[in-house]
Structure formats: C-alpha cells, structure tokens
Write a structure and sequence with these properties.
about 325 residues, alpha/beta, 2 domains, two-stranded antiparallel ribbon
C-alpha cells in the first residue's frame, strides 16, 4: 500500500478526497431491481467502508418501478465522487440482444471487483480493506470471501453462516476447487476478486451464467481465501429473482446451470455439482408425479445421474445417510 493511492490509515470513503485521474483500487458492482425497501441499506453499507485506497460504486438498476431508481439517483447526486448510477428506462432482464433503449453502464476501473446485490448489505466497515490488503500481499490468490448472516422477510436474522475447516487458523482458511466440490462456501455479497480473471469472453460464453461461473474460473486460476469474519447480510424474500421461483423451477434452473458448466469443463468439480443437481431434481420429481408418467418424465435425468455417478466418490457420501444427503441437496 505504498503507492500514491494509499492513505496512512483507513478513512471512511465519504471523507476521501482524490484527484479525478486517480484510479480506484476496487469497483463495487451493485445490481438492483424492485429493491425499494432494501437499497438504502445496501448503499449505506458501501458508504460506511473505511479504506486507505480509492473506491468507486457502480449501481445498475434494471428499470424498477417501485422507487428504487429515485433512491439511487438521490445518493448519486449526494456523492458524485463515489457513485455512478445507471438506471435503465426499459427492463433488459433476459433480453438478448439488449433493446435499442439499453443504456451501457460504465466499465469498472478498479483492479479488484466487489459485488453486492441491491437487496443485500455489508455490516463490516473494514470489509474491503481486509480483503484488498490480503489479495495485494498474496498474488497467488484470485478470490477473497467470508461469512454472512441470513435475514428473513420479517427482518430477523435466522442464521449465521461462518464455515469451519480442519486446519484453519483464527484468520480463516485457504480453499481450492477440492474444498468447493459438492457445495459453495458463501454468497456473492462477501466476494472480492481480481478483475480480468476470468476473461469476460469466457463468462459470456455461458447461456446460464451466474456468479458461480465467475467463482469457478477464478479458483481454476489460483487459490481462494475464506476470512473468519461475517461480512454482511443476505436477504431471503419473495421479491428476489431466485426466491420467487417455484421449487420445481429452482431445481430445474440449477440443473441447467450445472449441466452447461459440466459440459464445457468436464472436471471433477463440475461433475459433482451436475450430479448433485440432477439427483436433487430427480428425487423431487419422483415424489410429485404419477407412476404412469415417471419414466417418460425422468428418463433423461435418471440417465444423467447414472452417467455422472462415480462409485468411490459418491457412494459413501450418498448411501451411508441418504436422508441427510437429500435434505442437504435440497438446501443448496
């Protein structure tokens, strides 16, 4: 942190005074849609950050009609040195190609990328400082993440998720694809990663691309570090894009995401994710369709489960305690 971008000690970013030509060290990317009840918490979580380096906040609203865009515009006018807002006038979700009314957001200028959806928020004021300091001093790592809390629709914290791994110290633990196999460690709101890894064209090649694709390709290029810190809050509510889906739609989408990821990469990590997704969908459908339609509806998924099953890797995990494993699969 000896470069010209560094202060001597962390200062709240709303009190920073940087020259315009100074490049930000990190770009915060925030996507919003119909997040009027939540977006202030998200933005305040960004503004509370204390850092020794310059930060930029890029917020992209996809034509919300509930007042979200107005709140974002209010903050952008108050903190023009920090916040750049893009408010679409026509919803662009799943529009390929984008419509002629699409407004191109500014490209992130930071060396690092931090993400947080507009309905989640950060609670640790040194989140960015902690993660950037680690990545700056450990060039072999591509990703930094940590713990989070889950909040229900009534504003109650229902769970604190802070992973524990054998051999970890008080600061956290290193992980690779091996540790990620079968489950993901965190939520997007905790992640900071190096820009340019992976390349944009790699992620753009996926039809069902999600943040899991970014994380997967990051860890293929280096190591990840999980900080033993709760960084923020993940909200579960009916207005969420994923939360609003039916159970069948969620499992079907998960199946399609991991099918594509596996077919493009064909490694043990993607195989395990695809096998779990196929098994989850198959098990769910078995309990909800008539015997008459069972083979017609599920032959393809059953064949996928058989094809991707690996006896030594999956037997112990599944057959020793199938009830527990099926419950775990459905919770992913």
């Amino acid at each position: 942190m000896s470069e010209k971008y560094a202060l001597h000690y962390p200062v709240q970013i709303t009190n920073h005074l940087w020259k315009e030509d100074f490049e930000p060290k990190v770009s915060i990317l925030c996507r919003t849609y119909m997040h009027q009840p939540f977006i202030r918490d998200a933005i305040e979580g960004f503004l509370m950050q204390k850092t020794t380096f310059k930060v930029e906040i890029l917020i992209h609203d996809d034509a919300s009609t509930d007042g979200t865009a107005e709140i974002i515009t209010e903050y952008a006018a108050k903190y023009p040195q920090l916040i750049k807002a893009t408010c679409q006038v026509e919803n662009q979700y799943r529009k390929k190609p984008k419509t002629d009314k699409y407004i191109q957001p500014p490209a992130p200028r930071g060396k690092y990328i931090a993400k947080c959806e507009g309905d989640d928020y950060w609670t640790f004021s040194l989140k960015l400082q902690t993660q950037i300091e680690f990545l700056e001093s450990h060039p072999e790592y591509t990703l930094s993440c940590g713990g989070y809390q889950t909040m229900d629709e009534n504003g109650r914290i229902i769970r604190t998720d802070l992973k524990k791994f054998p051999g970890m110290d008080e600061k956290g633990f290193t992980f690779t694809l091996k540790e990620m196999t079968g489950h993901w460690l965190t939520k997007t709101l905790t992640i900071v990663y190096r820009k340019g890894i992976p390349e944009l064209k790699t992620i753009s090649s996926y039809k069902y691309r999600r943040d899991v694709h970014v994380a997967y390709h990051l860890i293929k290029k280096g190591k990840g570090f999980y900080h033993n810190i709760v960084f923020g809050v993940y909200r579960v509510h009916k207005g969420g894009v994923f939360s609003s889906l039916t159970k069948t739609d969620k499992l079907d989408l998960r199946y399609r995401i991991y099918e594509e990821l596996y077919l493009k990469n064909q490694d043990e990590y993607t195989r395990a994710l695809f096998f779990n997704a196929a098994l989850s969908l198959l098990t769910f459908k078995i309990t909800r369709i008539s015997r008459r339609n069972y083979f017609k509806e599920n032959t393809k998924i059953l064949l996928v489960c058989i094809k991707t099953f690996r006896f030594r890797k999956d037997y112990h995990r599944f057959f020793k305690n199938p009830v527990r494993v099926i419950k775990t699969l459905f919770e992913q």
